[in-house]
């Protein structure tokens, strides 16, 4: 008995690529909010940076576990690192 897949390889690849680019974008947004400390952003903006970073981190963890090729991982890892690291930095700026 064979198992039938509900998605084609093209749909799966497109979804994986979209997740990879989404986490990279969320990581860059989190970085930008953390760098906004030098422009005296409000503490609420840093809480938004924390939320954005956590969402990017969680999405990148899922995408990393389901990625199928090295090209996606080269996009995922910077997003994962940026999201996680700068979520913590934004948290630090938000509580101080």
UniProtKB/TrEMBL annotation:
Q: Where are the transmembrane segments?
A: 18-39, 45-63, 75-95
Query: Which keywords does this Swiss-Prot/TrEMBL entry list?
Result: Membrane, Transmembrane, Transmembrane helix
Q: Which protein are we looking at?
A: Unannotated protein
Please report the organism this UniProt entry assigns to the protein. Answer: freshwater metagenome
């Amino acid at each position: 008995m064979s198992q039938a897949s509900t998605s084609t390889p093209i749909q799966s690849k497109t979804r994986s690529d979209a997740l990879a680019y989404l986490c990279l974008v969320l990581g860059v947004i989190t970085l930008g909010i953390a760098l906004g400390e030098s422009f005296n952003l409000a503490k609420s903006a840093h809480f938004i940076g924390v939320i954005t970073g956590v969402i990017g981190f969680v999405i990148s963890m899922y995408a990393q576990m389901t990625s199928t090729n090295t090209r996606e991982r080269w996009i995922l890892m910077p997003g994962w690192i940026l999201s996680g690291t700068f979520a913590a930095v934004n948290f630090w700026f938000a509580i101080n």
